[in-house]
Amino acid sequence: MLPDPHVAAIAQQMIAQRQETGWRRAIDDSLLITGRNLIRLQRNPIVIVAIAIFPMVFLIGFWVVGQKLMAAQGVNYIQYLVPIINLQALFFAGLGSAIMLAKDIETGMMERARVMPISRVAVVAGLVLAYLIRGLLATFILLAVAYGLGFRFQGGFFALLGYFSLVIIFTAACITGYSILALKLRTPTLVDAVAIIPYTPLLLLSNGFSPTENFPIWLQPIVRYQPVSVTCDALRALVEGSANGGSLYVASLLWLVGILVALGSWSVRLYKSL
Amino acid sequence: MSTLQNAQDAWSQPDGTINEKAIAAVVAARQEGGWGRSLHDILTIARRNLLIEFRNPAEILVSTAFPISLFLVFTASFAKVVAPGESYSSYAQFLLPFTLVQGLIFGSVNVGSVFYNDLESGRDVRLRAMPIARLAAVGGRLVAAAVRILFQISGIVLVGHLVGFRFYSGLLSTIGFFLLPTVFVLSIALIAVYIAIGAQSSETILAVMNPWILPFTFLSIGYVPKEGFPDWAVGFVSHNPVSMVTQAMRALANGEPAAQSVIITLAWSLALVLLFGPLTLRAYKRKI
Question: Which of B81, B203, B228 comes nearest A214 by C-beta?
């Protein structure tokens, strides 16, 4: 049965009056959900450990272990190390977002949000925003600690801008990639257990901790050109203010945007069929 | 009806209480105490815990695969940094004992969270009410954790073999190589269990354990010999218990004299048990 055209018109008018759609409303709702997610993050002790202590411990740990040996290879290890520790912190932000998403699916928060008069994008945007804030916070703390250990940002203002734009895009790519795990598995503990699998090949099998030349020859092409290495190269070039910073930045951007588009469309498809 | 009546007559005393000798007789007949029964109960509980592990294999497989992948990646990336001019397999020989211990120490968090889940679900209260040996609740868990650890060690050693890790020692030393980390990690798991009793959520255990596990593993002779550290760190590095167990296991694998480092490692374990054993018992008794 078709609805009465008169009723349909009234419904349209009501929606318009309550402003349930439109950009303004979408932004308002997204900020609301972001606020909710940030409150949840604040109340979880492990998050504070993950944001402040983990990156610091990894930075200091690798620095103490590696500085003497790397100096023998002519590498100033604190300058070399900060980008990969930063990316690692962002990776963990992505991992955390997947666990929160899985919790929202498991507890029915997702379904609840669906029946409420809020914008459809709000749940996703709220998750991404909250974890972008977490990633940036971790980055600030890390850079402050690194400064104390002798790390100095040699690039200019645009290099700094480039650094932070890569940080933000990398976080977005991590959140998007990990959201697929959450949407497929749907149980927080399972997501937690499996989430470490992309970490090893991508972060550890990169030139972030040790220069590419130290790897076995047959591994070097993979190590050199995989996205984390390329992004690390770009971040290091921006930190040092080297001349090839621009081209490395573009290469890294291409990788990250490509990943965002590919995994993003997959993630959106999974989200719609939820 | 009449037998029950008889039994009640035999039990009850003029003042209305129950004859304690009769209770003791019942307990003896059902063999609730004694070594045989205790052992049987311990194995039953251990079997139950292991069944949980192996029916949900994702957790144990990942926690075995993670140290393996760390081992492979660090061999690939740091061999040329730590020992320029030497082969990858000689660094593998150097690194494997450490990655093994490191992986197991991180796994000890899992022992804590399994225990936490048991407390949450009321399992220990139930065990209390059952006619089983009192020791079984603890002993069963210990045995299950030890089996889990030995499984992990075997997996890691097998993969290490592919990259060039070898035992250059006798059978006894090889057995020691498997048992020493088991004992050491169980004593560390005791800390996780102690935290689990007071924890508000199972994530707390991870949040409390990891911040101090990481410095102990980083600042050890695991990745890099102690000559690679800055001078101010050498003192901590050489006396760190993780360094000790690593050194002991290297010696056991290479067929070098290991007695001193083995004894120091066992002393650390003993100290942990003496410290956290009573603490845990007290907290546990209060909780249940």
Answer: B81
| Phi and psi, residue B18, nearest 5° | -100, 140
Tokens of residue A108, six digits: 């029915």
Q: Which helix (H) or strand (E) holds B125?
A: helix B123-129
The residue behind tokens 């047959």 is A218
Neighbours of B125 (CB within 10 A): 12
Distance (Å) from the alpha carbon of A261 to chain B's nearest alpha carbon: 29
Q: State phi, psi for A156 to the nearest 5 degrees.
A: -85, -160
Asked if B9 contacts B103 with a C-beta cutoff of 8 angstroms, the reply is no
Distance CA B137, CA B44 (A): 10
Query: How does pLDDT run across B35-90, given as a tens digit for each residue?
Result: 888 888 899 999 998 998 888 787 788 888 888 988 998 898 888 888 888 888 99
Helices (H), A53-156: 54-72, 77-107, 109-115, 122-148
CA distance A30 to A127: 9
Look at chain B and count its residues: 288
Among candidates A65, A72, A214 on the partner chain, residue whose Cβ is nearest the Cβ of B218 = A65
CB-based contact A156:A241 (threshold 8 Å): yes
Type of residue found at B95 = L
Parent domain of B200? 2-11+18-287
Q: Do A65 and B229 touch (CB under 8 A)?
A: yes
Are A235 and B105 a contacting pair, CB within 8 Å?
no
Are residues A117 and A20 in contact, defined by beta-carbon separation less than 8 angstroms? yes
ipTM: 0.74
Q: Which helix (H) or strand (E) holds B108?
A: helix B88-120
| A216/B88 touch (CB, cutoff 8 Å), yes or no | yes
- Give the sign of the dihedral formed by CA B226, CA B231, CA B236, CA B238: positive
- For residue B66, list chain A residues with Cβ-Cβ distance below 8 A: 196, 200
B31 phi-psi bin (left φ>0, alpha ψ -120 to 50, beta other): left
Cβ atoms within 10 Å, residue B275: 14
Alpha carbons B186 and B222: distance in angstroms, whole number: 20
Q: What is the pTM of this model?
A: 0.81
Nearest CA in chain A to B75: A215
Report yes or no: B179 and B98 within 8 Å, Cβ to Cβ.
no
pLDDT tens-digit series, residues A25-79 = 888 889 999 999 999 888 877 787 778 888 898 899 899 988 888 998 889 999 9
> Would you call B206 an interface residue with chain A, using a CB distance cutoff of 8 Å?
yes
Structural domains counted in chain B:
1
Contact B58 A190 (CB under 8 A): yes
Q: Does residue B216 sit at the A interface (CB-CB below 8 Å)?
A: no
The structural domains of chain A, with segments of one domain joined by +, span 23-272
B116 touches chain A (CB under 8 A): no
Terminal CA-to-CA distance of chain A, rounded, Å?
28
